[in-house]
Design a protein that fits this description.
Number of domains: 3
Number of helices: 20
Helix content: 40-55%
Shape: globular
CATH topology of the largest domain: Rossmann fold
Oligomer: single chain
CATH architecture of the largest domain: 3-Layer(aba) Sandwich
Amino acid sequence: MLLTEEMKNLVPSAIVQYLDRYIVGQEKAKRAVAVALRNRLRRRKLPEDLAQEIAPKNILMVGPTGVGKTEIARRLADLVNAPFVKVEATKFTEVGYVGRDVESMVRDLVENSMQMVKKRMIAGVQSVAFEHAQERLVDYLLPVRKSSSAAGIPTFLNYLKKEQPEDVPPEESPAVRQSTRERMLNMLKGGKLDEREVEIDVQESTSPVTSFGNGEMGGIGINISEMLGGIMPKKSKKRRMKVKDALRVLQAEEAEKLIDIEAATQEALDKAQQEGIIFIDEIDKIVSRGRGGGPDVSREGVQRDLLPIVEGCSVTTKYGQVKTDHIFFIAAGAFHDAKPSDLVPELQGRLPIRVELTALGKEELRRILVEPQHSLIHQAVALIETEGVELRFTGEAVEEIAAMAERMNLEMENIGARRLHTILEQLLEEISFSAPERAGEAIEIDTSFVVEKLEPLVGNKDLRRYLL
């Protein structure tokens, strides 16, 4: 697979700089994923026989919740436009038990990959699809009459007579009909028919009832209508809507018809196999706590089920067989009550790179509020600004918010940066409620405002359990 010039320029330092725009701190983790990603790009430059032998350097991230583990993985996938899936290890059960099996994460990845490929292909045929949609819409607006004398059959001719000269012939000979279609098409392109209502046939989306082996039961998730392909015609229903809305619906249908679904499927499978990233969160929750039976056995069973997936095997999906040999796995967990060495030895060997993420202090929390692209403060200001209210945070106020978040994390369960979301919601609740009636005002959030709004909650140990 050829690398684009943009991907060739993704040196580790550039990858870290990109991650710095969204994640504060955690330099070791950023460097580790940057090197791992660069190695994936290096592998694709090698001869095919050698490239097949080089396995991805999967990563185990260890650190408390809310410090950026998931965000690092997600932003990494965005950077290279790779299929990405986040799963929680606790949702899986050992083969033979009711629940999700570990192979479902690979099926989810392939589905994600397929949607990415289809979206790109559909974007490339929009202009042609729009022309086809216009032709179809004209057919709906100007149905064929059985004879010129037929009564009660709706036509668009009467409507055209209001817009065109009086000498339009009443007969619908081929020449007349073609002329009528052309005039109607011009009116459609000119937007003159946008508000007119029309009844069209719309393809019904496949009902989930027609599928078997859904994700929760751990099956393959093959849809019956997809399995039968073109043998069974797609169902459609009549819907009445405005012409401009009908044009949008028909354009989407035409775009689907124009893409090569077989080529899309093959590309999606290749993309999932060579570029896919699976993030397995809470892997520490499936560590066996003892030597007993029951849940401990099931936890260890899930680990052993993960082994062939992470090591490399073939998984059956509704789009075909997928090899997991070169899918990039990033596992993460807090490991409060367990250690990475408590994982089954074989799984430890499949996660060769270990990275420890540190807890967030006051300074990191302050930076998270203001530094990342689309930071929390920036989001809050932008939301209130839509109501015509100018919201300003002083530097001291931001410091105070970070200090309170750190205090809450130390005195209660440490949920990292997630605490900032909760505190900001409590701080701005009254402003958000009254903002529509305060258009034109400028509101400054200073230290006294923060203390006034949050100190009663922070100081009340019973109340803060529920609100902070």
